[in-house]
Amino acid sequence: MVILILAGVLIYLDLNGELQRTINNSLLTRAIDIEGDVVSGRIEIRQEEAFAQILGPGAGVVDSSAPGPAVLSADEVAEATRHDVFQDRRIPSAPALGHRARLLAHPVRSGDRTLVVVVGASLDAVIQGRERLALILALLSPLLGGILSAGGWLLAGAALRPVRRMSQEADAISLAQVGRRLAEPPGEDEIAELGRTLNAMLDRIEAAFARERMFLDDASHELRTPIAVLRAELEMALLESGDRESLERSLRSALEEAERLAHLAEDLLVLARATAGRLPLRRRPVDIRALAEEAMQRGINSRPVEVAVDGPETFAVVDPTRLDQVVTNLLTNARRFARHRVQVAVRTDGDDVVVTVADDGPGFPEALLPVAFDRFTRAEAARGHEAGAGAGLGLAIVAAIVRAHGGTITAANGPPLGGASVVVRLPLDETGPVPEPV
């Protein structure tokens, strides 16, 4: 509406200005024609002139196209001898000029005197046309604005109808309707792109819920086994309360299961915090090689496997407790499946520190490699409590801690020892150069 009003005002002003210029040019042309006659010695007005006067000093009428007094006063004639003068007024003595006329007073030299040629034209047609144009614009602008608004409303409604349908369908989708998706509008426009984006988001949400359901199922299964064993051991202890040796054996077994439950609960808490992005990290400069050697020494009696730590002294700004958990878990897995050797290599690569834990065992099963760091993922041969396997959370926790540090972790089979190889890459410093160790 603002644009229409502005356009109407501009059209009115432009047309009115053009009409005014046309009238002025026409009057000037007529005055120049009369000037030519006066200069040539013919001081009279031609008969075809609608209205014209030749005035001398003191507003005396030298000649006129119609009988009547001078249309200009003596002062106005004196001013007109110096320059052209335009005036709008009503001329009662000249009915041909209508209710309002425009006069042009033009100075003309005739011998030793200056005469003033006055020509006039009616403004009635201009005023009527201007008023009609104003009326048309005043009526047409709201009508055109209403038409454009209605058309825009209809077009917007038609364009957004697919969005409304998608909104209604999205409101009706629930978790119980697995696989239900929004109807995607045809085409390649923004609405179709929105439908595809929303369906892709629903795919991700459904996959996330599926992973959470699987996580809950696996967690329930893993918790049920030690709880059942713990309960059985305690019941056995009650039945064998008279046999001190059997009672002690049952209580020790119950304590082992309780410790296993505590470890499992702690592992689940770490994963939950990491998933929520709230895993606390207390960073400080740490010698990664020294940390790996300490982890190696703690498990030196677990299996008769040769473990070697290679690489220079390398400092990085990390959480030492969490990184020790990473190296310990990787060494535990490597010792469990290694035949004879485990190797830990520490090196720097640009702004990263790279820790590689490799063994000469059978390596990861091929089907396990893509999901090696998922929760509750274990090799089939290692499944079962009797095999000494955990709950399948070790590598998932390692990956969560590494990602919390802003690093990456990958698993593969082959070099350097021919078995499994896990490569951890961590930034040396999250903010800048590593400070000198104290």
Descriptive terms for the model:
single chain; 438 residues; alpha+beta; Beta-Lactamase; Helix Hairpins; Heat Shock Protein 90; 3 domains; 5-stranded antiparallel β-sheet; 5-stranded mixed β-sheet; 18% strand
Molecular structure report:
- This protein has helices at 2-39, 74-80, 124-172, 190-239, 244-275, 288-298, 320-337, 394-404; strands spanning 52-56, 60-64, 85-89, 101-110, 113-122, 284-287, 306-310, 315-318, 341-349, 352-359, 408-413, 420-427.
- The chain is of the alpha+beta class and 438 residues long.
- It folds into 3 domains: 2-127, Beta-Lactamase; 190-275, Signal transduction histidine kinase, dimerisation/phosphotransfer (DHp) domain (Helix Hairpins), CATH 1.10.287.130; 284-427, 2-Layer Sandwich (Heat Shock Protein 90).
- The strands form 3 sheets. A 5-stranded antiparallel beta sheet has the order 2-1-5-4-3.
- The longest helix is centred in the middle third of the chain and has 50 residues, at 190-239.
- The chain is rod-shaped.
- 26% of the residues are buried.
